[in-house]
Design brief:
By secondary structure, this protein is α+β, with helices and mostly antiparallel strands. The chain folds into 2 domains: 107 residues; 127 residues, Gcn5-related N-acetyltransferase (GNAT) (Aminopeptidase, 3-Layer(aba) Sandwich). It is built from 8 helices and 11 strands. An 11-stranded mixed sheet has the order 1-2-3-4-11-5-10-9-8-7-6, sandwiched between helices.
């Protein structure tokens, strides 16, 4: 398999690649590692390696698909995870590619270019302080779909968020919701979104996200969010304040037949 270095990765200057790159979150993160492995023809496709292997295809043509499939089949000697454009994954399904395993995860990539003002609610956006650490650690523990390793781990995560510049809460007498964004290149990637179960459906989160978008715009950042495309209620919250779907990416596993 012929890998190239980033110095020889000419697609970095390709107009289509530059346009797509903000919505390929982990391509950017993978490329932060100057030693990351890349397979590309520097024209029509790129396969960028990391914990998840990202497949980017410039033009959705069958001849390019077949080239990429040949490369993938030479890689498959263990369980691997890939992410690709929706069109390419549908092609793999249509040809009954034998290496596909399990149900894919559909990621919706949203961007907010024009903000929408949500219905006003009680309370205000705020920055938490160290005094809020214990309360937020409890909220964080409640938000997990799995058992937390320890209370100290909860406190560690929350402390990092509080010490960052981009972690916000909504207060209505008490903290009822929180969210953050991380900055990468010129993008503000929203995440760590949580509303207390008894406070849901009251409009707190749209107002919190709205305030955060305004702050990101002031810093000349592009607000983006990656969500589970099939999680309708969460996506509705983002749409209420102006996020629009830019593309769908498919995360899927392959395994040697």
């Amino acid at each position: 398999m012929n890998f190239i270095s980033q110095e020889d990765f000419k697609l970095l200057n390709d107009k289509t690649f530059k346009k797509d790159k903000p919505f390929y979150e982990l391509i950017s993160h993978n490329l932060d590692d100057k030693n990351c492995k890349i397979i590309t023809d520097n024209q029509d496709y790129a396969i960028v390696f990391g914990n998840v292997i990202w497949i980017w295809i410039k033009n959705q043509r069958e001849d390019t698909y077949l080239k990429v499939i040949t490369i993938l089949e030479n890689l498959i000697n263990e369980l691997l995870t890939f992410v690709c454009q929706e069109d390419f994954y549908k092609y793999l399904q249509n040809i009954n590619w034998k290496y596909l395993k399990g149900k894919p995860y559909i990621c919706g990539c949203y961007e907010c270019k024009k903000i929408i003002v949500p219905k006003k609610v009680n309370g205000k956006i705020d920055k938490p302080t160290i005094k809020d650490t214990e309360y937020l650690a409890k909220c964080f523990e409640e938000s997990l779909d799995y058992s937390s390793p320890s209370w100290d781990v909860n406190v560690m995560f929350v402390t990092r968020w509080i010490n960052s510049n981009n972690f916000y809460v909504w207060r209505d007498d008490k903290i009822v919701a929180y969210a953050s964004y991380t900055v990468h290149d010129n993008m503000a990637e929203f995440g760590n979104v949580y509303t207390l179960p008894l406070e849901r459906g009251k409009g707190y989160m749209p107002n919190l996200i709205y305030g955060m978008i305004k702050n990101s715009f002031k810093s000349k950042l592009r607000p983006i969010v990656y969500t589970n495309y099939e999680y309708v209620s969460s996506n509705k919250c983002y749409k209420k304040v102006g996020f629009e779907l830019k593309c769908k990416l498919i995360k899927f596993n392959v395994e040697e037949d």
